[in-house]
Amino acid sequence: CVVILLVVARRAGVIGAACIAAMFRAFWLLVPALRAEWCCAARMFGLVGLTFVDF
User: Fold this and answer.
1) How far apart are CA 26 and CA 36, in angstroms?
2) Which of 7, 11, 17, 38 has the greatest number of C-beta atoms within 10 Å?
3) What per-residue string of b and e applies to 4-27 under the rule 16 or more CB within 10 Å gives b?
């Protein structure tokens, strides 16, 4: 969904390629941090058997 919005915005000339590249880098750096936080919360609440995909 986010990728489609970025492609549409790029084609419309709203944002440049450098801006899109920067957003992708920020997003891929954020994913491991979110997963690490989910694992920490899962351990705290005893949800160790569940995976990130379950939600």
Assistant:
1) 16
2) 38
3) eebeeeeeeeeeeeeeeeeeeeee
Task: Look up the domain containing 42 and give its range.
Answer: 2-54
- Per the structure, the count of domains in the chain is 1
| Span 35-45, pLDDT tens digits | 666 666 666 66
> Cα–Cα–Cα angle for 13, 19, 20, nearest 5°?
80
CA 3, CA 42: separation in Å to the nearest integer? Answer: 29
Residue 41 token pair: 């919360």
pLDDT score for 34? 65
